[in-house]
Amino acid sequence: MKLLLSLLFTINSTLALSPVCQLVDDHEFAPLTKDPYNNGYPESRYHLVLNEFIEEFTPDIEKRGGTFHILRDWSDGAVNAWAWRIGDEFWLEVPGGMSRYHLINEFGFLTTLCHELGHLEGGAPHGSEISYEGQADYYSTMKCMHRILKRLGHSNDKILSGIKSLTSYYAFLEKSDPPQINTPDLTQARQTLRSHPKSQCRFDTMVRAMKCDNKDHFSYDNPNIGACQGSLARPLCWYSP
Fold first, then answer.
1. pTM of the model as a whole
2. Which residue pairs, CB below 8 angstroms and at least 24 apart, start in 97-101?
């Protein structure tokens, strides 16, 4: 699988290979026998969720003239995920380890999928039509989670559980306390971040997006289209208007 990623970088530039975006910079890996890397999530459920995700969001990709694919490997213990694009092919890679890690529940796993799709569908701010990390977070809980939760028979009140689960993993990698509602990130970015914001900033972004009822598609030209303003706008900890 990693050989495939290596080969992708060598493909002729005429195929318009977009940058590969990964969920976290310093992902965790360990053999499947270690307890922290096996929360009991079933392989059958992993495949069902990915199948349903493809079914739900393929029409969105097809409207842009593309095809949607998920590269999966249950035996891969990497706690990470990736998104990239080759011409009109839109790809996610989702190792089984992402669903099995002890900090990740099913809703955290779904939030991961929505974040990675956000790189491909999240609009501006972006580079080469691959949405920045903060924008992928903003997309995940505003445009994606309610749809896949409904498809799987879950209610929208599970979105917050997914946010807490995934950002607790980010905080673990940072060696910081898990983000909280009452401890917002008050920093202000001098310019919009392309890279991963801090875990509290990402938590704040997803919570704001969760509360935004604007279901219009994001624009790649105007960052205000599809977004909310005021208290539900993109947090300044990563976004500079």
1. 0.89
2. 97/28, 97/29, 97/32, 97/37, 98/23, 99/41, 99/45, 99/46, 99/49, 100/32, 100/37, 100/38, 100/39, 100/40, 100/41, 101/28, 101/36, 101/37, 101/39, 101/169
